Amino acid sequence: MMRALSNSDFLRLWERGSRLHSLDQALLVLGTALPEMPAAALADWPLGRRNAALAELRRTCFGSVMRSWVACPECRERMEFELDAAALAADGTPNEQPVVVQGHAYRLPTSRDLAAVAHESDARCAALRLLQSCCAEDLGAAAWSDAELEQIGEQLAQADPLAETRLDLRCQACGHAWEESLDLSGYVWTEIEARARRLLLEIHALASAYGWSEGEILALSEPRRALYLEMVQA
User: Contact 182/165 with Cβ under 8 angstroms?
Assistant: First the structure.
């Protein structure tokens, strides 16, 4: 069962994960929120299941409304938008049955699969290696055509819709329309890092003013800590 992260959790996650790859950061966060789940099992979750869990954790810790912005690639106008973390979590349950394309069965990609190709500089080579990992048969050095890669990718995306969330955006300033990919794990990690940095600033201010330890400051409720900070800054 998923648990909400505490202020101490935010600090530990930031300290342990600040130098990790984004794939490892996502698993570190989920491992903290799901302490009874083995790390190896989390790494083998389909990406949509992982992202649905991250969306649910985001809703639990920060609320359902996800605010973000992006610059229009045509005119560079700043465009703000909102997403619903609860809706993302609800829509992210993948069909974990093998996907059969042209007589070959493929399982859904996982974090472990992505980690294996994360440092591959050629996008096509990365896609080929990913399919070889996910194919239920040993096809050897099978050479998929670009059309086959696209077909298999589309079938896998349909079976696991939250593996990659594509946003349809339109600039209100110039009317340009385009698609943008949502990096859900990066979004959640950015919020965790911001919370940790805010907590450290508060700890520094209160420890300097009152001589309290980090543990004593974190034990304060949010309203009490805010009031103490207000008095220190007055």
Answer: yes
Which amino acid is it at 188?
V
Task: Give the angle subtended at the CA of 127 by the CAs of 124 and 129, to the nearest 5°.
Answer: 110
Q: What's the rounded Cα separation, in Å, for the pair 89 and 159? A: 16
Burial readout 45-76 (b: 16 or more C-beta within 10 A, e: otherwise): bbbbbbbbbbbbbbbbbbebebeeeeebeeee
Q: Is pLDDT above 90 for 1?
A: no
Residues 197 and 100 sit within 8 Å (Cβ to Cβ)? no
pLDDT band for 140, please (50, 70, 90 cuts).
low
CA distance 132 to 141: 8
More confidently predicted of 98 and 66: 66
Mean pLDDT estimate for the chain: 92
Residue 140: what are its φ and ψ, rounded to 5°? 65, -135
Q: How many Å apart are CA 80 and CA 176, to the nearest integer? A: 15
pLDDT classification of 141: cutoffs 50, 70, 90:
low
Q: pLDDT tier at 97 (50, 70, 90 boundaries)?
A: confident
* Cβ(58)–Cβ(38) below 8 Å: no
- Torsion angle in degrees (nearest 10) through CA of 94, 188, 117, 90: 0
